[in-house]
């Protein structure tokens, strides 16, 4: 099947229908670990990449991925995060890496993003791709928030993603806040496409998707191809404050195949995913995408 994208190819996509009836594996909340105070030094400035890419240079076991992401998260201070919860990493898939992080963002910061997004009065129908097209592919509404609008929340998010990915905050787009009302969805797509290699800012090498509010029914994020067993499709149930992190290209930074920011990055089609229709209540998410080059702080999006 041809690659699907958040950009131009979406029109030709359809959800894969495997010959075997898929087993849906829904990732739900794990028991919450008790808060453990952080003993590491504070990160007082916007990060410039506190961890190297080295970890991602080769295929890792699930436990290696979990331990690495957990350490990256623990390295980031929670001082400005006002909930007494410690983020916990759970590996949905180690190859390709797909990590679910509970308590990635505090409840109050989730609310801060939703309130700020709402108060802009600028939420418009979501689009796909650099052409900013609206279609039935994506029926939610969107607003972009920059660092000035949500300074602390934006910094906390950037620090955590920087720690995990090894890319500094200036490689990240602004925050894209998305609201799904009942009946709305985002069909199967990838967050980057090979054609983005032609752009100055290049493709979205990594995605961090944060769940700001969970619907009462539906709205799972579906990954039909990430599990090695093709009969298994992964569905992640939104939970407020949780996030998923994944790489969108075959070449992970630090790997032998990764030859610097100028290289051609091949979209990993196993990372196709969809926001399933919301069947009750409202779902809010926030995207922060990472690029292989300096994206320029304050730039709105692709
Ligand atoms: O809403 C979801 O679960 C997925 C959203 C998504 O994939 C996107 O915004 O690119
Ligand atoms: Fe996506």
TrEMBL record:
Q: Which GO terms describe its molecular function?
A: iron ion binding; L-ascorbic acid binding; procollagen-proline 4-dioxygenase activity
Q: Which UniProt keywords apply?
A: Dioxygenase, Iron, Metal-binding, Oxidoreductase
Q: Which Pfam families match?
A: 2OG-FeII_Oxy_3
- What would be one Gene Ontology cellular-component term for the protein? endoplasmic reticulum
**Gene3D superfamilies from the UniProt entry:** q2cbj1_9rhob like domain
Keyword check for Oxidoreductase, yes or no.
Answer: yes
Query: Which domain of life does the protein's organism represent?
Result: Eukaryota
Q: Does the keyword Magnesium apply?
A: no
Identify the residues that the record assigns to the Fe2OG dioxygenase domain, covering every copy: 168-292
Q: What is this protein called?
A: Fe2OG dioxygenase domain-containing protein
Per the UniProt record, the source organism is: Phaeodactylum tricornutum (strain CCAP 1055/1)
Taxonomic lineage from the root:
Eukaryota, Sar, Stramenopiles, Ochrophyta, Bacillariophyta
């Amino acid at each position: 099947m041809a690659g699907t994208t958040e950009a131009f190819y979406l029109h030709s996509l359809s959800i894969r229908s495997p010959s075997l009836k898929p087993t849906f594996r829904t990732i739900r909340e794990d028991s919450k670990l008790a808060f453990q105070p952080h003993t590491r030094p504070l990160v007082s400035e916007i990060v410039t990449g506190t961890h190297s890419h080295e970890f991602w240079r080769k295929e890792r076991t699930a436990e290696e991925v979990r331990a690495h992401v957990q350490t990256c998260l623990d390295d980031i201070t929670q001082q400005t995060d006002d909930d007494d919860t410690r983020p916990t990493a759970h590996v949905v898939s180690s190859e390709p890496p797909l990590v679910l992080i509970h308590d990635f963002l505090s409840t109050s910061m989730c609310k801060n993003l939703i309130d700020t997004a709402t108060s802009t009065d600028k939420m418009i129908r979501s689009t796909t791709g650099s052409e900013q097209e609206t279609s039935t592919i994506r029926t939610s509404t969107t607003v972009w928030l920059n660092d000035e609008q949500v300074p602390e929340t934006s910094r906390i998010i950037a620090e955590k993603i920087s720690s995990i990915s090894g890319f500094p905050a200036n490689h990240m787009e602004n925050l894209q806040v998305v609201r799904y009302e009942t009946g709305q969805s985002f069909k199967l797509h990838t967050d980057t496409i090979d054609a983005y290699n032609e752009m100055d800012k290049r493709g979205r090498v990594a995605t961090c998707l944060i769940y700001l509010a969970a619907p009462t029914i539906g709205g799972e994020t579906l990954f039909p191809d990430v599990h090695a067993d093709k009969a298994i499709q992964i569905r992640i149930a939104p939970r407020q404050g949780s996030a998923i992190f994944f790489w969108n290209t075959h070449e992970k930074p630090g790997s032998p195949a990764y030859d610097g920011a100028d290289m051609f990055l091949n979209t990993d089609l196993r990372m196709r995913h969809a926001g399933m229709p919301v069947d009750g209540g409202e779902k809010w998410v926030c995207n922060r995408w990472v690029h292989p080059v300096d994206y320029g702080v304050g730039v709105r999006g692709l």
